[in-house]
Design a protein that fits this description.
The chain is α/β, with parallel strands linked by helices. The protein has six helices and ten strands; from the N terminus they run βββαβααβαββαβββα.
Length: 239
């Protein structure tokens, strides 16, 4: 197997963004694609590696960018400064996400009618917003994502399938937020699933996460279980 990658630049609102496309060279023809939405630091090696792993599974992986080409936070303070404006103006975030999905759909390796999106932390919130706005994705997977609704999609129906993979001890998404999310998905008519992992905190898929005081701790078991759940979800989605 030989996974290939290339940079894909696109412009939204006069700003240049850069995603990384990954695909298995030996696979011929168009195939389903899975976009990867980044965590609060920006599109990093973590998301590119996930895109490559998706390519190994036979999909086209695409590590999206919503901060801008070359923009990457290097501390909690920088990460928060990058993320907060988009949390406060979700329509801007949604515009950038939608542009990335469109760019992915026109790549020659991609079957445009078979696109999904996965995301981690802030990226989990991002892909849930793709479902909320009715973006052309068949399904989304949130890994330890934030569940805060955007405020501009209330009353809209959700046609994409939704899978949320959540650490039950995540201090950033307490049980009442989980219940509110379940209620939101149900009211939107979504085909939704929620997998909650016990004794598991935020950022459980990130091997670099090791700060119990901040609520971010890697959990190898939850990491493996959540990836397996995503694989099953994608298999059903694209069958």
């Amino acid at each position: 197997m030989s996974v290939m990658t290339r940079s894909v630049e696109y412009v939204v609102g006069g700003k240049t963004f850069e995603g990384i496309l990954a695909w298995e060279e030996s696979v011929r023809g168009r195939r389903p694609a899975v976009a990867v939405a980044h965590a609060w630091a920006g599109r990093s090696a973590f998301e590119v590696e996930k895109a490559k792993r998706l390519a190994e599974l036979g999909y086209v992986g695409f590590a999206m960018d919503v901060y801008g080409k070359g923009v990457l936070g290097k501390s909690r303070e920088e990460n928060a400064a990058l993320m907060t404006p988009l949390l406060e103006n979700r329509s801007v975030l949604q515009e950038r996400l939608s542009a990335a999905i469109h760019v992915l759909s026109v790549q020659p390796e991609v079957e445009p009618s078979k696109i999904a999106a996965i995301g981690f932390c802030f990226g989990g919130l991002s892909v849930l917003d793709l479902a909320r706005i009715g973006a052309p994705v068949k399904g989304v997977v949130s890994f330890h994502g934030l569940f805060t609704p955007p405020g501009n999609t209330k009353g809209k129906k959700i046609s994409a399938r939704v899978l949320a993979l959540h650490g039950w001890d995540d201090p950033m998404v307490p049980p009442e937020a989980v219940v509110a999310f379940a209620r939101e998905m149900t009211e939107a008519g979504a085909d939704w699933q929620l997998h909650a992992y016990g004794h598991t905190m935020h950022a459980f898929t990130n091997p670099q996460a090791n700060d119990p005081g901040f609520g971010t701790v890697y959990n190898a078991t939850a990491d493996a279980r959540s990836w397996a759940a995503m694989r099953q979800f994608l298999t059903e989605l694209f069958e």
